[in-house]
Amino acid sequence: MNDEFAGDSSQWAFGTGFEDPLAGVDTTVPPGVDAAELAARCLMLGDDALIMSQRLAEWCSRAPDLEEDIALANMALDLLGQARLLLSRAAAADPGVVPALPEGSPVPAEDALAYFRDAEQFRNVRLAEVENGDFAHVVVRLLLFSVARLALLERLRTSRDQVLAAVAAKGVKEITYHRDWAGRWFLTLAQGTEESRRRLVAALDALWPYQAELTGFDVELRDEVDAVLDQVFAVSGVERPERAPLPGTGRDGAHTDALGPLLAEMQVVARAHPSGRW
What does pTM read for this prediction? Predict the structure, then answer.
């Protein structure tokens, strides 16, 4: 082995090719913006994207055909990119949100947030974390998630925090594709065979109790999201579910049993090597 690789084994294992995603960007919190509130919002949006990305990535090599397999993988990568930017912004706005690591650890803040928090510290909506089902399940989940996320990112494009506004503007383009992809497949499954429609309706019924959490108590946002979903339901001939929302919210750290195993798999390598260079 060459001398350049003979020293620090952690560098050899993980490499050093990743840079700070906010390098060169002024991350000063603007006057009048509460840093803690900004960090909390970025953390919620970043956790949503991170966990949803992980669930979509589990579909790799399982989609009905190669084109949809690639589409799902690309959407997972879109969300992973959003997660990295948002978690980085959260850490820059309020370093206190970053979990403590061993002294001298080279792990960047966004990785610390992703890999060194426990389930109750995550602030993602529960819709993102529930276990995958069949193809109809991923279509319904992505439709509900992307319609709400797109409406929220549209608003955040005018955020007083220019970093969050820029991240939102980039995300709008990506999530628009996600919404359209899910909407087309929702219509296809609804108007396809009796079996495809049955599976779609079953997935919608199973996931609907998680939908209200996406908009929370924001009535205006909820009305905007409902209008889009009602349009999809009308065109596809699918009735709007009447199931009541589940109590509690992932925003407060109340999660389903599915999040723990997801994080255990996602975090195992980083936690085994907390001083590794990524």
Answer: 0.91
